[in-house]
Design brief:
The chain is mostly helical and about 100 residues long. About 70% of the residues lie in helices and about 0% in strands. It has 2 domains: about 60 residues, Orthogonal Bundle (Arc Repressor Mutant, subunit A); about 30 residues, no CATH class.
Length: about 100
Amino acid sequence: MEYVYAAMLLHSLGKEINEESMKKVISATGAEPDEAQIKAVVSALNGVDIDKIISEAQNVTTMTQYTPTQTSQKEEKKEEKKEEPAVKPEDTAAGLSSLFG
């Protein structure tokens, strides 16, 4: 995950995301850079419009507050609450008096 963070940091600073800059960022944190992971991240981001991806992710997040499952679960809970009959104190008293005659 730190390799993705390093790439995002470089991107936000307007720096080129390459193997050397990734190594510097990872080393600056005190961690030992993993060459294979760095190469994988750099090659995966080659040709990717990061700003576009971030924008799309923000749009998806702001468009939906709840997933359809969460929304339907909330509706079911509301319906369940409505179906429960309310017990009135008079009904309780009438039930108790019938027990004792």
